[in-house]
Amino acid sequence: MLENVRIVMVETSHPGNIGAAARAMKTMGLSDLRLVQPQSYPSVEATARASGAGDVLEAAQVCNSVDEALEGATLVIGTSARQRRIPWPCLTPRQLAAQLSHDLANAPQDTRIAVLFGREDRGLTNDELRRCNLHVSVPANPEYGVLNVASAVQLISYELRLALLGDDFELQESRSRREVMPLPEMFWDEPPATNEAVSGFLDHLEKVMAQSGFLNPQQPGQVMTRMRRLFMRARPDKMEMSILRGVLVALEKKMQRDEGR
Amino acid sequence: MLENVRIVMVETSHPGNIGAAARAMKTMGLSDLRLVQPQSYPSVEATARASGAGDVLEAAQVCNSVDEALEGATLVIGTSARQRRIPWPCLTPRQLAAQLSHDLANAPQDTRIAVLFGREDRGLTNDELRRCNLHVSVPANPEYGVLNVASAVQLISYELRLALLGDDFELQESRSRREVMPLPEMFWDEPPATNEAVSGFLDHLEKVMAQSGFLNPQQPGQVMTRMRRLFMRARPDKMEMSILRGVLVALEKKMQRDEGR
How large a percentage of chain B has pLDDT more than 90? Predict the structure, then answer.
């Protein structure tokens, strides 16, 4: 269904942004890119920033007008950072994605969606925005809400991917069995330990494990990685770290005292 | 609450990405940026790409090591495009945002969150990833899932903003959405330990703690309750239990051998 979605960039000034948008699209599984009167294209900078998405960039269609870029579209979405004088139906990217996922699930063959992205300095014109069925606006810092155009392409493509394909990790990518590991609740009686405190404890634990003869420092294998993972995911609090440190100190003293006899 | 979140970029090669990340952060209301050994910084390119986020860029702290960048952090998140040999708890950005929003709502003063972003070409090292409590991975095209680092900063900052501040347009809806966020499911390489195994380990730990002299069996206080809570919430797997049992056995032998001299 992602193939029904087209990204249209209008009069982009910086070719780097075109390449970055192509890359953003490909990471989310989109491939239909149209460029309306790009200021400088093709360009070495666009190719560099596209990185592994050179195919999307090369297949991009350069258009003379927005009309040409919108050819065949059944639903046109305009991205906008601010509300215009006459307010349009305006969705967040998440609401838009939910809407499109609904449309596409019901009539995939008939739906051709185009999402318009405006110029770096002034976005889409009022005229261009009026040609859209819906507007989409990214919830942002009211003091500075101007996203880079390729970042906006990334965000909206991401929301579309999640709405259309779900956000599960690829099952087959994992060679291991699936287990459920719930995260700890954090209604807590003690403040969390700092990262330095946990690191210091893990170094200390390693030392005591070596002293005990359990850990061979020459052939440590994956033992400390596994211990690290256990304690990192448990997210110890300050009191727990202090108890465990106390135990390690007591064990060291006991082993030294006994050795010294 | 967004001020509790720090973005850490590790050994970034392209200064443009640093500027773009600063801009991405500011659009989402984040401002705490730390740069671990950036290849070329300060830089005209970073400043240009930061656009209106020059203040975030100028306030960025350059650090000599990841340790320095993580100073004071109570929760460290590593961004990663792939599963490593020993899988870590790994969330999607949306699951992460739900989790952090929960943590911050309950203990805002104590929580300092650092999100680590790796090098453009090879991400974070295994060693760096092992220092994280959680990993986060963006659901992406399995054929090409390599997001630009500034795009990744944008996406994760966006998810955090939405989870923490809600959606500008429909606050109530986004709040209720957050509450129904399902617990993340994890991929794990080892089956979980049984409850008996963890109980047996805790009894054994108590014995060794008493032998070491740390724990007074006549006045145990809450120490074992705290140890029990720590290990129960971590939900150890079989391999972890087997390592920890091995360590306890080695410690006992060492203490007995030394005493018997």
Answer: 55
